[in-house]
Design brief:
Layout lengths: L1 H12 L6 E13 L5 E5 L15 E3 L6 H14 L2 E9 L6 E8 L3
Antiparallel strand pairs: 1-2, 1-4, 2-3, 4-5
Length: 108
């Protein structure tokens, strides 16, 4: 029975990620969606280990406590051409995009 429990736990943990980083890139597009979220497209694509079926955008959820600051930082990065990196955690339920949890502003 113990071996069976270990086997089940192994299968349950196979595609489970928490706070995966995404590869640094420039912001190529920002979409303000009427669902209250901001969609961010990256020039080099969204490269992360999150198990989301749709990785064409990263989503900034309006429920994020740093929503305004992250949005301002994304706009600054977009207009200056500087790169961003950061972390995403889980997939949003509406579009299945990785959800932005941390944003790092990098040099050009």
């Amino acid at each position: 029975m113990k071996n069976f429990s270990v086997l089940i736990l192994t299968f349950l943990s196979i595609n489970t990620y928490a706070n995966s980083s995404f590869k640094e890139s420039s912001v190529s597009k920002i979409v303000l969606h009427d669902a209250g979220s901001i969609l961010i497209s990256l020039k080099n694509g969204v490269v992360t280990n999150e198990d989301c079926s749709n990785k064409s955008y990263i989503i900034l959820d309006s429920a994020n406590r740093h929503y305004k600051e992250m949005y301002a930082a994304l706009l600054a990065s977009y207009h200056s051409g500087s790169k961003v990196s950061g972390w995403v955690n889980t997939c949003d339920t509406k579009f299945n995009f990785p959800v932005l949890t941390r944003l790092d502003l990098l040099e050009k």
